[in-house]
Specification:
about 120 residues; mainly alpha; Four Helix Bundle (Hemerythrin (Met), subunit A); 5 helices
Amino acid sequence: MLPTLDPTFLADLRAVDPARGSALVREIISLFLEHTAPLLDKLVVSIATRDVLPRRITLHRLKGSSSTIGARQFAQLCDQLSLRLHADPGADVAQDLRALRREYTRLTAMLQDVRGW
């Protein structure tokens, strides 16, 4: 199992702009948290309605944004779900969605702690 949040992510991001590093980290975390919950809701709807294109786009966005902030486990869960649905578009993925939500809850708590909320 991968870590919920890659610890090198924050250090690397802060190093990009040492004068503004912490503010940049807080801004990126805020954007991730703001946009991810609605994407998860959209994913659930697109799976329930078997709407393939929005489902693929949403999973791609979730995987990409989580990879960008160092949320390796969340990104891996998105990738696994995407591969599973690609192999079997009608697969029962309720357990996968629960795992994704659990990881998002852990990730959110960690990110809010890092952000100082």
